Amino acid sequence: MAQATLLSLRDICRSFGGIQALDNVSLEIAKGDIIGLVGDNGAGKSTLIKILAGAHDPTSGDVILEGRPQKLSPPAEAQRLGIETVYQDLSLIGTFTAAENFFLGRELALGRGPALLRLIRRKSMGDTAVKGLDELHIDIPGVRSKTVERMSGGQRQLVAIARGAFWGHKLLLLDEPTAALGVRESREVLELIKRLTAKGLTIVMVTHNLDHLWQVCNRVVVMRRGRKAADLLSSGTNMEEVVAYITGAKAPMQTRSPIGEASA
Ligand SMILES: Nc1ncnc2c1ncn2[C@@H]1O[C@H](COP(=O)(O)OP(=O)(O)OP(=O)(O)O)[C@@H](O)[C@H]1O
């Protein structure tokens, strides 16, 4: 069955001084897509993610969200629209617990007022964070009591992704979610991504690990020198072909997004 389009990028260009980081990139993201965004260093992946995250404005081109032209910047606007980003630094405060990190910068923050009210708000935030982690079957001891700096890298990544999924009800952007992790921790993160997929979340994930991409993504988008070199269903391609697009051994496709074709 054809999936509805969530977000379209149309002819997006972005330059930094004389550097053309993105050159006429168009991309259709369907609801429920898990897109693996790949490409060599400097190919334009981060710039594309930052456009979607509202951290960069396009120099030209249009962003259409659920059928309406939309400005995504600044990042708070993208977040208001339900787009969350988990960057590699995870943006967690080490001296806060996982529960406190869930609500960083959000309206429910403790704020001012009588001590009792602040205590009640803190309890309510803790309950919500625990519920959010439970629903995703993330079993981390000390969600309310242990600071995240005392957690493993894998646990921190799980907390950051769970927080992103909790607030990002439309689109979750993941920047190399397994880059710094060992085999077991990577597996846990990939399992979490699969559970988010099952819940119908839409994800765009930058990765250098094609094996990980194949475990979770239904689509592969290859960037090369600021252009979209290929846009493929993972079920209709293989690693050899994707590598050929990454390196330029294979000429860029005349791409159209494979929305509506069979998903993996
Ligand atoms: N803020 C910036 N100022 C100047 N040039 C930039 C800026 N951000 C990106 N670029 C340039 O734009 C091009 C694309 O960079 P981008 O970071 O998007 O690539 P990437 O595919 O994410 O690479 P990597 O895998 O190395 O992170 C590169 O030439 C980079 O140097």
UniProtKB/TrEMBL annotation:
Record carries keyword Heme: no
Entry-linked SUPFAM superfamilies: P-loop containing nucleoside triphosphate hydrolases
Keywords: ATP-binding, Nucleotide-binding
Protein name as catalogued: ABC transporter
Ranges for domain ABC transporter: 7-250
One MF term in the entry's GO annotations: ATP hydrolysis activity
Lineage: Bacteria, Pseudomonadati, Pseudomonadota, Alphaproteobacteria, Hyphomicrobiales
Protein origin, superkingdom: Bacteria
One matching Pfam family: ABC_tran
Protein family (similarity comment): Belongs to the ABC transporter superfamily.
Coiled-coil segments on the chain, per record: none
